[in-house]
Amino acid sequence: MLASAIAVLVSTTEVNASSADDANTVAALDTQYQAAVKENDAATMDKILADDFVLVTGRGKVYDKADLLKAAREKQVIYERQDEEAGSQKVRVWGDTAVVTAFLWVKTAQEGKPVDYKLWFSDTYVRSPTGWRYVFGQASLPLSKVDANSR
How far is Cα 61 from Cα 45, in angstroms, rounded to an integer? Predict the structure, then answer.
């Protein structure tokens, strides 16, 4: 009986340690991805994004990996900010799937016009034979200034 209880405790501790390690790995990877977007670093984005990646914006526009890499290579958006708010990132891991949620501040020039907004996003990662890959992203609509500042 005692041996069984110890075995369960040990296996639970190993799962939690592994899950914590996975959460830290995915958190760092998502932070690296956000920095790559900010720098229009298509090579880093390409390594992180799964081939069948999909992003859905708050307005329902859908982008795939090719769309995002093309935009980065062509520097379609020049970012002043593409930064997660400190302390807002939360990673949840379920086996080989992890979901990152965070509050993002985006400040850019798009088509010559300044854009400045904050939003929530959720990024889903899946463990593959070659490591964690970003497979699906969903972004909220940009928040009003009042909502963004009242968090």
Answer: 20
Q: Which domains does the chain have, with CATH numbers?
A: 2-149 (3.10.450.50)
pLDDT per residue as tens digits for the range 36-81: 999 999 999 999 999 999 999 999 999 999 999 999 999 999 999 9
- Round to the nearest angstrom and report the end-to-end CA distance of the chain: 49
CB atoms within 10 A of CB 84: 18
What angle do the packed helices 2-38 and 65-73 form, to 10 degrees?
A: 40
> Exposed/middle/buried for 101, CB within 10 Å: 0-12, 13-18, 19+?
middle
Contact assessment for residue 120 and residue 144, using Cβ atoms and an 8 Å cutoff: no
Name the residue among 34, 57, 55 with its Cα closest to residue 141: 57
CA distance 111 to 1: 69
Computed over every residue of the chain, the mean pLDDT equals 88
pTM for this predicted structure? 0.84
